[in-house]
Amino acid sequence: PFCAKCKKNVKSLSALQDHYRGKAEAIHPKCSKCLKGFYNNNAAVEHYNTAHPKKRCSCGVQVYIENLEDHYINSCFHPTCIICDVGFKDDTALNEHSIYAHASLRCTICKFQFRTNVELKLHFNLSMFHPNCPTCGHGCPDDSTLEKVIRVTISPVYDSK
């Protein structure tokens, strides 16, 4: 391999790449994303456009495809999971994630996601959309769960008489 611009012979293609990278920007331009060096500006621009493509995000911003996940996390236009702090393209993607990754912390009736079991239980206790045990006040996600709670809390009282 030979650098025609510097009139220098090198032993290998990797040595030529090192040569490009080691020279001043005015002699051999570098990619600002990956720091790879190039013979001239045309080669650098061609590399930049093919190796680091941009995509127009659904929020309208041009984003490097390799930075899309960071964009979702840092943009106020995209929802973030309150549990694992991962950003998503839209509410549909966040809901799908929540259903599979955090099902135990999700109210399937109200479609709310909670950070902890304590928050979820408090929701069941306070929400008018969930039944409460008349004996102990325990909030339940649904009527079938309430029936089980009632059997556990009331049956022992009648069984002991």
UniProtKB/TrEMBL annotation:
Gene3D superfamilies xrefs: Classic Zinc Finger
Pfam families for the chain: zf-met (PF12874)
Domain C2H2-type: from-to ranges: 31-52, 81-102
Protein name: C2H2-type domain-containing protein
Superkingdom assignment: Eukaryota
Stored InterPro entries: Znf_C2H2_type
Lineage: Eukaryota, Fungi, Dikarya, Basidiomycota, Agaricomycotina
Family annotation (SMART domains): ZnF_C2H2
